What does this fold into?
Amino acid sequence: MNRQSGSSWYIYIIHIFVALVILLPLAFALVSSFRPLNDIFKYMSPVTWKTFLPTQITCDAYVNLFRERGFGRIFFNTFYVAFVCVIFGVILGSMAAFAFAFFNFKGKNVLFLLVLITFMIPAELVAIPLYSLIDRLGWVDTYYGLIIPVIANGLVIFLYRQFFMDLPKELIESARIDGASWIGIYWDIIMPLSKPVTVSAMLLIFIQHWESFMWPLVATRSKEYRVVQVALSDFTTEYATYWNEMFATVIISVIIPVMVLLPLQRYFIQGITHTSLKE
It folds into this structure.
């Protein structure tokens, strides 16, 4: 018992240390977003209570984001791209996984191997070929260019396929005997049973596109289609860096995914843990 209690204290200390490493930078960013620009690094050395508690509180950074820098449009772009990718990504990913799980066709294993390879390849490796493609289609600086090349997601297909493989085959066979079509089986039987993995897929896609930087940077030129991660680079100019506005943007961009993830974390964990690796 003493050994167990002693080891539990070590675990608690490690958890507290990790929490401090993660939360202290966020706390500093939050406090700095409410400070005047000239006061942000004024109390960094030595570190005192003033480092994490502002002596002057101002909301100018947040006001400037939406009044002068047009972050209303930027957040709309980010939400819109993420939302559309979630809807179509789940539909395409689940339909592709349905085919891999329940149909037998020539080259099935080879195609699934290619799907696995797609989410192992770094995005930077395919950025230039994708840009050449959307440039020929005239999709540069459009929502089409931001969304269509990144809708398909190999990891989502993999999660759905592994989940579908665990479903009883008798369920599909009885539905086919009763005269159900494949579309009816997919929509009325399979998808209602797949809520945990669907929530997991939706969260994965949303967070991926909310935090996306490389592809939006390549696919857009004007501020009209800029997303939040790309817009963070605007705060550094030739003469100064607007740290308070940058920290304000970081806080907003962190809070929104957390607000989406926390209420759904139970389903997210279920979807990941219940997805087996059997073939």
